[in-house]
Every structure is written in C-alpha cells, then in structure tokens.
Amino acid sequence: MKPTTSAACGPPFTDPAYRRAYFCNFIPVAIFLCVAFFIGSPLIVNYKQRLSSAWGITESTQKAQSSLCKGPCKPLGSEALPNGIISRTSNLELRPIWGSPLPPNRKGSTKESKSLLAMAVGIKQKKIVDLIVEKFLSCNFTILLFHYDGAVDEWKALKWSESALHVSAINQTKWWFAKRFLHPDIVAEYDYIFLWDEDLGVEHFHPGRYISIIQKEGLEISQPALDSSKSLVHHQITARGRKGAVHRRIYKHSGGGRCYENSTSPPCTGWVEMMAPVFSRAAWRCVWHMIQNDLIHAWGLDKKLGYCCKGDRTKHVGVVDSEYIVHLGIPTLGGSLNHRPSPEVPRHNSQSETPHLEMAVPPVSPMLDNRYAIRQRSFTESEIFKQRWQRAVAADKCWRDPYPEPAEKAKT
C-alpha cells in the first residue's frame, strides 16, 4: 500500500509530538528577534541620525568650498593646478642667469611703470632706428626689434643692442610679428605699446612727454602727428596742427571723403594711421584679438581700431600735435635695395591726400622688386578683412554696433 502525500513529505502537523517540537524551536527564535528589535531600534535610529548629521556636514562643507572656489576662472589648461601657483602673465624683461632670482625687498617701493617699443626693422635703416631707440631708452622703454631681413648680428655694434630683444623672420610684417610675439598676457605689464615703422624721424619727439599728454587727454589709441612739410602724408588727419597739444578730428568741406562737425566715422575722427600707433594696455588686449593671423599687412584694421578704446572713439582716439615725427616714406619690405632714398633726405609731401581702403589698385607698372605685388596683396587683404567683419556682425546676434553707419552710407 502506497503512503499518502503528507506522509511522504514528513510527519503531519496534526501529530501532537511534532507540534510540541515545532513550538519549542520557534519560541526561542521569536524571543531572540524581539529582544534584538527592542535593543537594536535605538541603535538604528542613532545611526541614522549620525549618518544624516554626517551628510549635513558634508553638504555644508561642499557649499563652503563651492563659495570659496567662486572666483576668476582659471586659464584654459591650468585646471589641474592650485590657483596660487598659476602665473597668468609675463613680460619681455631680460633676467640674469646667476645670483638671486628675486630683487631685494624695499619698504615703500613702488613698481616702476614701463612701456614697450616694438619695431620691424631692416639693416638698411640702421641709422634711423638707432636714433629712435636712443630716445626711447632714455625714458625707460623696453625695446623689441623684429628683423624682417634676418640681419641680426649687424646690430651688435650698437651699445644698446644687448639690452634689446631681437626676433628674426624673413620678409614678415610688424603685424605678423605682433600677432605671434605680443600676446596681451605677454605685454600685460607695459602701460603703452608703441608699434612703429622704422622710417620715422624723431627729432621733435620725446616719449616721456608724449605719454604724459595721452594720459592727461585720456587717449587709449593715438599717434604722433606728422610734420607735413617733410613727411609723406596719406591722410589729412595725421598732419600736425599748431593750435593745441592734441586733435581728434578734421574738417574737410571739399573733394572726396568730406568731414564735417557731425562726422563720427574714420578717417574724419576716431582714427590713427598704422605707421606709428600707440595703444594703452587695455586697448592692445582688444586690438590683438582683432588682428587676423593670416592677413599680415593689417589693411582695413585702422577703421576698426576705435572699437577697442574704452568709451567714445571720438574722444579716446587722437593725434598728438605737440610731439610730432617725420614720415620718411622709405620702401622696406620688397623694396629695391639699389633705389631707396637716402635716410638723410626725407621725401616731401605733395599735400594731396591718398584714399586708403576704397581706392582701386593703382595703375603702376610692376617694378623690378616686389613692391607692386605687396601693394596688391595689401588691397586684397583689405577686402578680405572687410568681408570677414561683415560676416561676423551678421552672425553674432548678441553684438550691437556702438557706431552704426547711416543707412545711406551702408548701402553704398
């Protein structure tokens, strides 16, 4: 006879002996669980409270750290460094390779202000450059020479040569050099950046007095006026006036490019030429970003410089008359070595003004040297820069032009 299912699975629960054994085993387990519950509940609650408190402390610590960490953003690439070790700027000062790396501390001493003269130079203008550098060195300037002809050793005989910085690259313009070697963080310690051509006479120019004038007048972007009787003058606004220390606009009631009392656009006002511009530290930080890496002649940039001055360009861009220079007009890049005018005999101006940006390429036969090709390249770059500006304005929906052109002029 086969056993029933319940018998096969174990003794039936109705069996009195089995039930006694079951309850005898269950009661101690139940008692243990109850004791554990009553004893453990306060411990669990206490643990939760401590855990909650720990979370609160951690959260408050994170908030405190977050508030402490709120500050200027770290430069790109320095995120892994503690903020205090980051050296954000540099300069062009020469340092000794022996002795103490730090100057002695002097109580009450203040940092001496300095400015920078940067020039693209060739050995053919050595005499002119020597006169310029001597004047600037007397006023505590740092000198940086960009050698576009590769002739660096030929300057060693000059007494100041070892204290100047020399950078050499064949047939490059001062704007090419400036974009690569005058980054705003590199020149951040200089009050003013003089980015000059090499063919300038400085007999009537004093750098120290010039800086005093532009500081007093609040000029962020400026240039010394040109002696119109001895200079090659392209724009009337650069010609020296004799009535005051500074002028910021011109008046021209006849001919092309007229300028009136209410004219607000370059070259009537808010404009300097690119041969001898002077930039404040803040203005240069803006201008550097506007220089196009591939447009090395920088034509077209002059009309936009006023965007980089703090405030109204008609007030903070100007020409200094009391400290003036002579523009000799000597061909440099691409110029013929055999037909350059003598540095001692400056070219005289015909008093006619030459349009700068909108003029067509002049109908001049190509010379044996590269001057004609360079001029063509300059005009091409001017058009490219103009188109880039227009595209940038159209694409940036957040930018508002502080100097909008009149509708009639914008259509032309």
Describe this structure in words.
InterPro entries: DUF707. Keywords: Membrane, Transmembrane, Transmembrane helix. The chain crosses the membrane at residues 20-45. The chain is α/β, with parallel strands linked by helices and 412 residues long. It has one domain (115-411): Alpha-Beta Complex (Spore Coat Polysaccharide Biosynthesis Protein SpsA, Chain A), CATH 3.90.550. Helix content is 33%, strand content 11%. Strands 1, 2, 3, 4, 5, 6, 7, 8 and 9 form a 9-stranded mixed β-sheet that branches. The longest helix is centred in the N-terminal third of the chain and has 54 residues, at 16-69. Residues 2-9 and 336-368 have low confidence and may be disordered.
Q: How would you name the oligomeric state of the polypeptide chains in this document?
A: single chain
- The number of distinct β-strands equals 9
What overall geometry do the principal axes of the alpha carbons give?
elongated
> Biggest sheet, open or closed, and with what strands and sense?
9 strands, mixed
Strand fraction equals 5-15%
